[in-house]
Amino acid sequence: MKKTTVLSAALLASALAMPAAAQMSVEDQIETRQSAYQFAAWNMGKIKAQAVDEEVEYDEKQIAAAANAIAAVANSGMGTLYSRDSANDRADDTRLKPNFFDELDKVQEIAVSFAQESSKLQEIAASGDKAAVARQFAKVGETCKNCHDNFRAE
Amino acid sequence: MKKTTVLSAALLASALAMPAAAQMSVEDQIETRQSAYQFAAWNMGKIKAQAVDEEVEYDEKQIAAAANAIAAVANSGMGTLYSRDSANDRADDTRLKPNFFDELDKVQEIAVSFAQESSKLQEIAASGDKAAVARQFAKVGETCKNCHDNFRAE
């Protein structure tokens, strides 16, 4: 158990070190991660409106597309957008707290559940069962909240 | 031919009128569409770095995830983020040109090719043929450019 956790943190650390694209500036990292989350939040909002609050008519295709979008964010390898210098003790216009880099095990755990719960949401959305979508939406929302409670400043 | 085009524009117009979520403010529409495109651009950048410029080692999983992300943006129903009041003759902090709303046929045509070319990129990325990915990346890039040349201010 201990070993896996340590390994996961090591993997994350190496993901942080090996960029998928050319090295990005701290400003670009911040803007890009904020964009990714905002795109996810817009799509969460559609599912909330249609499956949870039921204030907009349920549209299976829109819900499936929204779930695809959230899963695409969760699986996009956002670790490369987090360099130590991009936390709010060193950079402007960001709410990332520096403890993120002291708790990479926890970060990894939350990132993995975000990916798993959104992949599940994607499957359920494809089947079109509104109540099941609403339940799984809540699970995804918990992973967002868990990360924000730990690593995002007010 | 004429009929289909007119119908498509009508469909787009109705998509603009019928939100997938609760009505958004003009500011939220602008921020959200900019976020979606920026998230797409980040993922295009990864494919460019790995499959076109070859400055970063090709990683099939990262490329597949990036292609999923671009397709998710293209299929996310961004039409609802474009209200007439959100063009740059009426709103701040946006580069959307008002002619967008006079040329809905062309908008629709570009939006459809963006969706089709990115879905193709998604398929090709899953198979992992680097040269084919590079070719299809260029096709997707043309749809981005086509939209910007017509509807995005400098």
Automatic annotation (TrEMBL), chains A, B:
<keyword id="KW-0408">Iron</keyword>
<dbReference type="InterPro" id="IPR002321">
    <property type="entry name" value="Cyt_c_II"/>
</dbReference>
<feature type="binding site" description="axial binding residue">
    <location>
        <position position="148"/>
    </location>
    <ligand>
        <name>heme c</name>
    </ligand>
</feature>
<dbReference type="GO" id="GO:0009055">
    <property type="term" value="F:electron transfer activity"/>
</dbReference>
<protein>
    <submittedName>
        <fullName>Cytochrome c556</fullName>
    </submittedName>
</protein>
<dbReference type="InterPro" id="IPR015984">
    <property type="entry name" value="Cyt_c_prime_subgr"/>
</dbReference>
<feature type="binding site" description="covalent">
    <location>
        <position position="144"/>
    </location>
    <ligand>
        <name>heme c</name>
    </ligand>
</feature>
<dbReference type="Pfam" id="PF01322">
    <property type="entry name" value="Cytochrom_C_2"/>
</dbReference>
<keyword id="KW-0813">Transport</keyword>
<dbReference type="GO" id="GO:0042597">
    <property type="term" value="C:periplasmic space"/>
</dbReference>
<dbReference type="InterPro" id="IPR010980">
    <property type="entry name" value="Cyt_c/b562"/>
</dbReference>
<dbReference type="InterPro" id="IPR012127">
    <property type="entry name" value="Cyt_c_prime"/>
</dbReference>
<feature type="binding site" description="covalent">
    <location>
        <position position="147"/>
    </location>
    <ligand>
        <name>heme c</name>
    </ligand>
</feature>
<keyword id="KW-0349">Heme</keyword>
<dbReference type="GO" id="GO:0020037">
    <property type="term" value="F:heme binding"/>
</dbReference>
<keyword id="KW-0249">Electron transport</keyword>
<dbReference type="GO" id="GO:0022900">
    <property type="term" value="P:electron transport chain"/>
</dbReference>
<dbReference type="GO" id="GO:0005506">
    <property type="term" value="F:iron ion binding"/>
</dbReference>
<keyword id="KW-0732">Signal</keyword>
<feature type="signal peptide">
    <location>
        <begin position="1"/>
        <end position="22"/>
    </location>
</feature>
<keyword id="KW-0479">Metal-binding</keyword>
